[in-house]
Design a protein that fits this description.
heterotetramer; A alpha+beta (365); B mainly alpha (299); C alpha/beta (165); D mainly alpha (194); B: 299 residues; mainly alpha; 12 helices; 73% helix; C: 165 residues; alpha/beta; five-stranded mixed β-sheet; 5 helices; 7 strands; 26% helix; 26% strand
Amino acid sequence: MRELELYFGPQHLGMVGNFSITLQVEGDRIVKATANPGFLHRGFEKLMEQRTWIQNFPLVCRINVVEPDHMELMYAMAVEKLAGIEVPERAQFIRSIYLELARVGSHLFGLWAYANMLGFDTVANWAMYHRDLILDLFEELTGGRVYHIYLWPGGVRRDFPEGFEDRIRSTLHTIGSCVPDYDDTFFHNRLFYERAHEVGKLSLEEACRMGAVGQVLRATGMKKDIRKTEPYAAYDQVDWEIPVRTDGDAYSRIWVVRDEMIESVHMIFKLLDKLPKGEAYQRIPNPFKWKIPENEVYVRCESSRGELGLYLVSEGGDKPCRAHFRTPSYSHGLTILEKALENESIADVGNIMISLYITAPEIDR
Amino acid sequence: MVIVLVLQILFVTLLSCLVGLFLIGLSRKMTARIHWRYGPPLSQPFIDIVKWFSQTAVSHGKLFDAGMIFSLTGSVVVVLFLPFGGICPLRGSGGLLVILYLMLIAPLGIALSAGEAANPYASIGVSRKLQLAFGYELSLLMILLSLMTYYRTVSIVDIVEAQIQSGWSLVQLPLVVSGLAYLLIMPAIMGIRPFEMIQAPQEISSGPMAEYGGKFLAFATLQHALNIYIGLSLFVNLFLGGGSNAGYFLIKLLLAFMVFQVIHAVWPRFRIEQAVRCLWRWPALLAFIGLIIVWVTTS
Amino acid sequence: MQYELRSMFEGISTEGDGETRVTVKCRKETVITMLSFLKKTGFDHLALISCVDRINNNELELVYILSSYGGDAAMQKLNILVKTRIPRENPQFYTATEIFRNASPYERELHELFGIFFRGHPGLTPLFLEREYDIPPFRKDFDTRKYVKDVFDQIPFVDDKKGRT
Amino acid sequence: MDRNNIGKWFKSPGNMGQKYSLHALYFCTGCGIIEIPPTITTRWDAERFGVIPVATPRQANLFLITGYVSVKTLRYIIRSYEQMPEPKYTVGFGSCPINGGMYWDSYNTIKHLDKYIPVDGWIAGCMPRPEAVFVAVTHLWTLIDKGMATGYLKYREHYTKYRRNQEKVLGKLEWPPLFSIEEENEKSREKVAV
């Protein structure tokens, strides 16, 4: 049969983010897939070298538009470690609550993308609506819907407003009350199983060899989560479980996402119950004259896509010398995607891509 | 006499286009309501058609234009064979076999036209369309055979008249199984979910429609509207007793459409090989059983 | 851990708190053997390959960050930063793609942004960039502001009626 | 639909059709795309105004440039824009296509989008809220009504200049020009000016 070269993206309705895959197709089967990133490359890390430590905050959150909060956390944590700033306990709790809210929002966005891809328009619309409810909380807290710039070296920018904890609870109850509906129409739907089962399968060994992290790894059966192995913020203060499934296909990846969302919501409730009183931020030196001693640091956290890291070098100046983000989508999108797409049908390209949770801006930076 | 015929032809063509477009608008509104949205105005498809005709359009060759016209003509001719209430312009000739034959013209025309565009997504879409047709044609043939055996006629008008006297086919015992089979293949004929993989914008960039813009898209949408009308009208005429007048017929059409729309709104789409497997399993089996039942009871 | 490494390899120096981060500085010849040794010991996850332009010393510093998938809790906590320095002019290095499969895109990126040639890499094709640059853009002596002024600001507006420049 | 519009529908059906059925090309050019899903789904529901995303440029007549434009994306933006049937409208979404926004000193993003393709309207902000899309759409309606949304005509008229600007950034373009290029005329005009 004749081989055909097919361009999937960047202008494509099934493509979430500006990303392109070149497919070698034989009939309906994909022989070879080549990822083609770079449509969103802005040279962030170069731009960061030209701005002062505090000026970089608006920049880092724009690296991943779906989930800017973990990027802020990374940068704030790295600066704290370099400058030796302690974070008050209340700020740690607030950070955890805020990051878990962001995780739920990001997973709902992923659910929108995945459901939309398979044609579950109704579920997609619901998911987007519920994400908007979470964005409303963020808007009240920080003033921005998408980009918040809320985390700060030494804590958070401002404390929770009055009654905010109750509003978080009621919003999460609203979303949680719809979980049975989601289950009936989407997760327990036979067609979802038919479409996603045995698609884009990865074994545990392959996943480890190609550097999988996050729910791609957890769907293959490995119980690994940075929040447990190297706890940051207040994750070691409450009990929670790591959801795991063993099949390693798109079906189990989406189920892991669902379980993680529910686990996150439970975690927020526990954190809210334990929230201590006190200061929410520590004063930092004058940001205009702030110089950070010469050192280097590698920090990591668990974003909603997996292990997120930042390698930050200071040369004793008022600007960073070098910053390099280790983003989970990088190996998912460039190594694993090419492998997972081999011998799959054209109908499943978007299906696999979104189940791997790839966001293009994270790759390109 | 000729004038009456011409008037009837014009009337039915125009009305079926209008009904088809109205159904598309209704479908968009209903889907929106199920999505917790407000939805577009019901007249939105008409506005779209007006817009597309006012745009420039890029043609990709003579066959690109001819295929489109070919396919639209095929659909219009099928419509003329279907009774619209009491009106059926071409009542004397043909009947079910001709309809079955003519229904193949529309996909072929689209295939010719989209093939000329040389867009790989369009050709994938066309191959999906033909595979899907291959999936439901057999069941459709068996269902029509059982109807023809039961009523001992090939004329669709006679079948409608027989139903007016003796009640709907769907509630007559020997035909119930065939009716169920038709209900199952109905989404595939109309091209809605879970059999929407022909267009599947998230997978293959709306398939055969990928290269259509401007007036070509308008024609393609009209053809799609007619296609929906044909699928529903066949069902209403064959199983729901047609209609003694146009109003009654339209109400039945609308109710049948709404049932399928609800399915369309909450289901995803199959992969093409899953769809063909599914179509060859249950509907084909049911249609075969129905055929045997009818054959046993009538002989 | 640090003692073990120091006894096995020559000419390396290690530092770190021993619990979460360990930095290993070594000569450029030992890096590849070091990486494969560390992979066998259990540090089988390559988190990042980064590069720092030390323009004052006229050197490029390559940083490989490793962590562990399996292993006990203490080992999972540990990140190892393997560092080496290569000259800035005509920089060349050996590829790590045969040890870690996900090293390939990182090396392509460094090839593009820093101009480091990785010997033995299966395909060092461009990854991100569309235009070609005289100096690889992530090096310290590449001035993006000047570049923007020279390239993008020189392109004229199409209608000059509004008086914009 | 507004009853006052019936007269307009008879007078210029084409314009009214363009107004009430803006089909936006789904192209995630930048991070602004994050606000498009809320705009088209339950919370804001752009389909009320006839704005829906479509899959291919041939079916679209509204091009929302959502966010910064890198050099690599610009090539695909131009290709998509040239494939859209006329009349077509472009709206820049976010600060970055206006003047570079916060990437004013980045080496890989173009700063002024209207140097390369004509733009009919801008939405400022980073990130603009979904309501801003509706404001832009209603403004675009006014422009279409008054006959001022003529970006596509401008593209025809100044095609030589646009093409030259595009080639300055992207190098030699591999597709043939959409309209004729007046190479000699330009040269002779320059000579006269000299």
